[in-house]
């Protein structure tokens, strides 16, 4: 996380699908403090209760997680709630339910998780034009396609393996941040 912070990344999500809840809590507590010290936003994936316990900035939910309205009861109005979506219907439903942002995808093929059929940048643009909340592109985003995602209108891009598998995490993150900024500057 420190290397990504140094590269200019300002939004982090802690995702642990198989860890014991106590370990997830303890790790989230450490990461929350690091993010706060780095003036970055920190989200916990799936676990609204753990997000509340570590005073994270919010929770990112999946379609099979706690419904948004119950996560809101746990977290209050001042915390962010995001949710992964895979269709226009899910995106609109998330907005109506009170999500602060949506993740949409997978935009490209991804090996990180089984996320269904790829959506592509054209559908990303449709989603962005159909909801009033921020849209974060998810799935298979890397240096070869991050600019396509930015041009399609996404407010941000979620990346995992392209940064964590890189020999130099800071350089990989810096490259993506720079490429994103270049598109934003030109539009």
Topology at a glance:
Blueprint: H1 2-7, E1 11-14, H2 21-37, E2 41-45, H3 48-53, E3 58-61, H4 68-75, E4 80-85, H5 88-97, E5 101-104, H6 120-130, E6 135-137, H7 146-151, E7 156-157, H8 161-164, H9 169-186
Parallel strand pairs: 1-2, 2-3, 3-4, 4-5, 5-6, 6-7
Structure description:
The structure is a single chain. The protein is of the alpha/beta class. The protein has one domain (2-186): Alpha-Beta Barrel (TIM Barrel). It has helices spanning 2-7, 21-37, 48-53, 68-75, 88-97, 120-130, 146-151, 161-164, 169-186; strands at 11-14, 41-45, 58-61, 80-85, 101-104, 135-137, 156-157. It has a 7-stranded parallel β-sheet. Strand 6, helix 7 (146-151) and strand 7 (156-157) form a beta-alpha-beta unit. 35% of the residues are buried.
Summarize the structure.
The chain is an alpha/beta fold and 187 residues long. Helix content is 46%, strand content 15%. The chain has one domain (2-186): Aldolase class I (TIM Barrel, Alpha-Beta Barrel), CATH 3.20.20.
Instruction: Give the domain tally.
Output: 1
Give the SSE string. Answer: HEHEHEHEHEHEHEHH
CATH C-level category: Alpha Beta
> By CATH's scheme, which homologous superfamily applies?
Aldolase class I
Q: Low-confidence stretches at least 5 residues in length (pLDDT < 50)? A: none
Average pLDDT: 94
What proportion strand? 5-15%
Number of H/I helices: 9
Structure keywords:
7-stranded parallel sheet, single chain, alpha/beta, 15% strand, TIM Barrel
């Amino acid at each position: 996380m420190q290397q990504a912070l140094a590269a200019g990344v300002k939004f982090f999500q802690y995702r642990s699908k198989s860890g014991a809840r106590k370990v997830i809590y303890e790790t989230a507590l450490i990461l929350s403090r690091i993010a706060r010290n780095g003036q970055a936003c920190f989200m916990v994936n799936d676990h609204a209760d753990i997000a509340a316990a570590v005073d994270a900035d919010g929770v990112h939910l999946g379609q099979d997680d706690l419904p948004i309205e119950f996560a809101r009861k746990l977290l209050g109005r001042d915390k962010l709630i995001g949710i992964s979506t895979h269709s226009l219907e899910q995106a609109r439903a998330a907005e109506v339910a009170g999500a602060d942002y949506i993740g949409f995808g997978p935009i490209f093929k991804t090996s990180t998780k089984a996320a269904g059929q790829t959506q592509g940048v054209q559908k990303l643009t449709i989603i962005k034009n159909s909801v009033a909340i921020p849209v974060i592109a998810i799935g298979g985003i890397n240096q070869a396609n991050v600019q396509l995602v930015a041009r399609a209108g996404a407010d941000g891009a979620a990346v995992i393996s392209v940064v964590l598998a890189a020999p130099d995490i800071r350089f990989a993150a810096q490259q993506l941040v720079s490429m994103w900024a270049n598109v934003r500057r030109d539009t």
